[in-house]
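Need tokens for this chain, all 218 residues.
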Amino acid sequence: MRSYNGWDELFTREFAKPYFVKLKQFLLEEYATKRIYPPKRLILNAFDNTSYEQVNAVILGQDPYYNFGQAMGMSFSVPQGVAVPKSLVNIFEEIRSDTGRPSRIEGGDLTPWAKQGVLLMNTVLTVEEGKPNSHKDKGWEIFTDAVIEYLNARERGMVFLLWGRNAYAKKALITAPQHLVLTASHPSPLSAYNGFFGCRHFSKTNEFLARQGKEIEW
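Here are the structure tokens for all 218 residues:
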């Protein structure tokens, strides 16, 4: 039986629920007949790279990139060698503006963040090629709600970075006082100037984590 990197208790519980059984059947049909991203083996990649105990921050996006070769199961991240999408270009620009130095990431693969405890999760974990939000309201939101609630119950504080309307909708689930919630518009070129640029989420995250003796090398 597969181990889920410290998420086993949550996943075992959720996978058995009727909504997830229905979601799984939907996905089997979608992957069999259409181009769906990310590849099946990478759907839970964010959790494979960041264990439950390790989470220091959660960056919550909308749904995966919908063009060939981009989605890798972690919000905003693309595989090494793939052109950096405009949303991620804007994220890097805000890091430079906020921290005074460029991101340590080379290319667009954000795995180094994941390995430092940044859970890179979308509100919906799959998408049909060329059709953003095509897997909205199929059950993923229930699952990612459960993830947020599971993290909210953890004793050690973390930072939740909610970018865009879909991510902001999760804010009500984060009730424990030990956590920090940061909200901004989505870093997409369509909305980055409406509150993402200048949000200073990266320095604010590290200021919070410094109390635990931690820091993310952005």
